């Protein structure tokens, strides 16, 4: 577990006002470029997929076009799958995992599934390497119609535009040391609460839906990924980040109640991947390969068990 400190914005015990929000924004700086890292790779895929501009963000004069990719020909006889990354923009292998899957592996599923993919749901967060958006809102706790996170609302509307029943949604994430050193303390400070530290798990794990558990599906992904990288072990309490481990490398959340991204499609098979990029036992390339492996394993299982 990593050391934590008092977050430098706000007064302990008092929720943020507009003043503290402005202070927090002043601490954020662009550290990489969505238009240089991500968009050109999406453009390169546009000869194989339909590139869809499904929304636009405007934060203090900085605009970001939200892009998705989907099969050019939708076959109504085939199931539909959604692959997303970058819901939390700082989780790099999620973004890179979607792109690499599309570039190297997606053609293997042509004629088997109608594919929708969104590599970077939160480009402002990607550029600032931040969990939140410009308004200090976590998109992945706000996937609801008319919610406060523009990124989440736009993705919901994009999914609805598909007008298809989804078989699968896999959302690619990371659990990082900065969850403990920065983003957890920031959340507590924003809401005027005391921060309770949490042990960061060393390894890959999955989040299933406690209202629609699919244990065989989750284990098929774990079995594939553990050939690429190590799987997180439970802590001494039998938990991973405060949730009971229900199977090897798997915990469960109430997806709809928490307004998480994997609740928006109503798919039979849903999962959230969690890679630990700060482990001394892994590399950025291995993390991305683990994400790609998870996507392929999820598709393989779902298509074999529709």
TrEMBL record:
InterPro entries: DUF2817, Peptidase_M14
Gene Ontology molecular functions: hydrolase activity, acting on ester bonds; metallocarboxypeptidase activity; zinc ion binding
Biological processes per GO annotation: proteolysis
PROSITE patterns: PEPTIDASE_M14 (PS52035)
Domain called Peptidase M14: residue spans: 30-306
Active-site residue numbers: 274
Pfam family, one: DUF2817
Family assignment from sequence similarity: Belongs to the peptidase M14 family.
Protein name: DUF2817 domain-containing protein
Lineage, broadest ranks: Bacteria, Pseudomonadati, Pseudomonadota, Alphaproteobacteria, Sphingomonadales
């Amino acid at each position: 577990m990593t050391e934590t400190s008092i977050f430098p914005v706000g007064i302990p015990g008092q929720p943020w006002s507009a003043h503290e929000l402005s202070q927090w924004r002043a601490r954020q700086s662009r550290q990489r470029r969505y238009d240089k890292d991500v968009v050109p790779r999406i453009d390169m895929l546009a000869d194989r997929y339909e590139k869809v501009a499904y929304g636009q963000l405007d934060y203090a004069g900085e605009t970001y076009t939200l892009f998705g990719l989907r099969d050019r020909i939708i076959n109504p006889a085939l199931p539909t799958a959604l692959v997303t990354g970058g819901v939390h923009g700082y989780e790099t292998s999620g973004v890179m995992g979607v792109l690499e899957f599309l570039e190297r592996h997606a053609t293997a599923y042509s004629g088997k599934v109608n594919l929708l993919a969104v590599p970077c749901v939160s480009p402002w967060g990607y550029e600032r390497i931040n969990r939140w958006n410009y308004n200090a809102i976590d998109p992945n706790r706000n996937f609801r119609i008319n919610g406060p996170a523009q990124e989440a609302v736009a993705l919901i509307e994009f999914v609805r535009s598909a007008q298809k029943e989804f078989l699968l949604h896999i959302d690619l994430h990371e659990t990082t040391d900065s969850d403990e050193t920065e983003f957890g303390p920031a959340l507590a400070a924003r809401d005027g609460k005391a921060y309770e530290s949490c042990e960061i798990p060393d390894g890959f794990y999955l989040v299933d839906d406690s209202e629609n558990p699919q244990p065989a599906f989750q284990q098929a992904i774990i079995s594939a990924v553990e050939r690429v990288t190590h799987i997180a072990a439970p802590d001494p309490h039998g938990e991973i980040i405060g949730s009971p481990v229900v199977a090897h490398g798997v915990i469960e959340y109430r997806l709809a109640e928490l307004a998480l991204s994997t609740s928006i499609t109503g798919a039979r098979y849903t999962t959230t991947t969690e890679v630990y990029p700060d482990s001394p036992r892994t590399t950025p390339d291995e993390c991305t390969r683990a994400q790609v492996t998870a996507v392929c394993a999820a598709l393989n299982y779902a298509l074999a068990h529709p």
